[in-house]
Write a structure and sequence with these properties.
The structure is a homodimer of 374-residue chains.
Chain A (H helix, E strand, L loop, with lengths): L1 H8 L30 E2 L11 H10 L8 H15 L6 E4 L2 H11 L6 E6 L4 H6 L5 E6 L8 H9 L5 E6 L11 H10 L4 E6 L24 E6 L12 E5 L1 H7 L10 H11 L4 H23 L10 E5 L4 H10 L2 E2 L10 E5 L3 H16 L4
Parallel strand pairs in A: 1-10, 3-4, 3-5, 5-6, 6-7
Antiparallel strand pairs in A: 2-8, 7-8, 9-11
């Protein structure tokens, strides 16, 4: 059995017997509509403010050292980020976006009969990375209020004697909703090392709710918690590919050989250092996000289109009719909206742009209503 | 047995039983001497010319889209690189440096009892990435003329019924020497799919020898050849982290789920596109490299210090005495030279800098001789 699962991912039987891994869920990465053609991008949860002015300057200056391996800029980033987070540097690790942290966790914890327990819908990268490995993937529907169903997830973990990764995306992508941090804490407190908690906090800085906080403190003593963060969202650096993980030093050491070496790239490192030094950056990003959200809420309320409460830079709203048709009509109107997130195919995920972009979206949506499309 | 090897890399037995993977061979990445302190860096095979002017401009312009995921710049890079290499785009894949290509090959081909056959000394990243996996690593000494000992490597592969990765770094790092491409071709021609040839051509553009050519043509029909290239060397983009692989489309599909998603980063992509459009870039890099090499050869000949013939942007030369002492003395003189590459501890690896930097190195080395240090 172990041998069979190994063979499935391995080489031994020759290439002819190895089925190519399907790329479903990745094709949108290559969508030519990503090109710069004047389309408004409300599709990928990007920060519409763009690089902070200090980061723009850092990139300009950083060109001088772009021919050198990034050891020095990595060192400098650690020197800034560790005190910023109040975490010793041996609990930090970097990657090309938070997605690299997710990749290494999935790879390093792979074992025969291991479970991967996650929500549906949630961020697709974790199940994507698990495909070549012998994980049993359990996708648990969100609760009625769009939280992770921790009770059901825990039942699955407890029903098995095998190791498990529990992926908790909090706030959750694509729903924008929260899972009670107290409930997450309770489970972690009661857990054994057999269960790895992979907690994705990509949208942490947008959330402002008394029931929500980071899982970071657990990494001081627990080896079974990995917290994942990114510079793609609040810091507007999605193109530069910089994420970081926080974990116990033992866990960092276990993950290290799975990381691509010589990360992070120099330009991302210098832009991040500069951005962390801009004390108003987070406030600016949150502020423009709130204004965009208010415009969108107003429009959806006017049209009577239900939407989920959001703690991020996007939300899910109801559409009527077929989602693919809706997406195509928006594209024809010059607006890229979210991709389908099964099983929630009666909802569109919309990322927040600049206020003027949200006004244009609102106007377009009202036009759809006037034609009976939503 | 399979279960035991799986457990070694897995999670099942609880974290306490899992030995942390040693980080030997990685510590130099975090060496504080990588900092910008006026030291001459002749240590990491970087291109001293820095980013090409067109790439510098591309980075400046690229800041406008740095908040967006790199789908569009990836698309644009494929549109330029595929015709440049005369390779259909389904045979290309990108990563954060050529090291990511090496990582995914090692990970995707892992299987119980698989062999990893490589030279010693050679580039350390491949054995580094193999550590968590159940590879049997066979490090085969170079021949008397510092080529890969393909005969001995082939005996090892043929003596086993198990799959194998054969890593061929050509030209070889750290020696700068070539392995006959005709001999490589002969082995590939006779090989079965059980043997994966991972051919690292990071220094391809520096080599100019009638017995040397790329293994790229094999990827048209063979699924068991992966060619790895980089923008770090001839294109002077080491800090920006961009490499690419060339392989059969089936092989690309097999590697894909091991790659970090959303690669490459936007800044590297736009810099690479611009650099590929600069028809004089390769010539400039080769030219300055030749001048540096001539200065160094002159000095080493004067001092009677033996050196290996090089087809790259570095060479290995003899020292007398202890290598660590030599490295430290050079550092005190403000010159970072190569790290130790066992078993060749009677040699220093020296990367080529600008001609004026090589003059300073030569002067320093003559000073060492006058003190009896070399």
């Amino acid at each position: 059995m172990e041998r069979r699962t190994f063979l499935r991912t391995g080489f031994a039987a020759g290439a002819a017997t190895i089925a190519p891994v399907p790329l479903q869920g990745m094709s949108w990465l290559f969508d030519p509509r990503h090109a710069q053609d004047g389309t408004i991008r409300l599709s990928s949860n990007e920060n519409p403010l763009g690089l902070a002015p200090v980061a723009r300057q850092a990139v300009l200056d950083g060109r001088e050292e772009a021919n050198r391996y990034p050891g020095a800029s990595r060192r400098a980033l650690l020197d800034v980020l560790a005190p910023y987070l109040d975490v010793p540097e041996d609990r930090l690790f970097f990657g090309a976006g938070s997605t690299e942290m997710l990749r290494v966790a999935v790879q390093a914890w792979s074992a025969p009969n291991a479970r991967l327990v996650l929500a549906t819908p949630t961020f697709e990268d974790v199940p994507g990375y698990s495909r070549p490995f012998p994980y049993q993937v359990d996708a648990v529907p969100l609760t009625a209020d769009y939280a992770h169903d921790l009770g059901r997830m825990r039942e699955i973990v407890d029903s098995s004697a095998h190791p498990a990764i529990v992926y908790i995306c909090n706030p959750n992508n694509p729903t924008g909703t929260l899972t009670s941090s107290a409930d997450v804490d309770a489970w972690i407190r009661a857990s054994s090392d057999r269960t790895l908690f992979l907690v994705d906090e990509a949208y942490l800085e947008y959330a402002n709710d008394p029931g929500y906080w980071s899982a970071q403190p657990w990494t001081a003593d627990r080896t079974n918690v990995i917290v994942v963060r990114t510079f793609s969202k609040i810091y507007a650096m999605a193109g530069m590919r910089l994420g970081y993980g926080i974990a116990h030093p033992k866990t960092v050491r276990r993950l290290q050989p799975f990381l691509t070496r010589n990360n992070p790239n120099h330009m991302a490192a210098v832009a991040a250092i500069a951005s962390l030094g801009d004390s108003e950056l987070v406030g600016r990003s949150v502020g423009v996000n709130s204004r965009a959200k208010a415009i969108l809420h107003g429009c959806l309320d006017d049209l009577g289109l239900e939407y989920l409460p959001t703690h991020t830079n996007f939300l899910m709203h109801r559409i009527s009719g077929e989602l693919r048709t809706y997406i195509d009509r928006m594209a024809e109107a010059g607006i890229r909206v979210g991709r389908p997130f099964p099983p929630m195919l009666e909802y569109n995920r919309l990322s927040f742009g600049l206020p003027e972009e949200m006004e244009r979206f609102a106007e377009t949506l009202r036009g759809f209503r006037s034609r009976g499309w939503v």
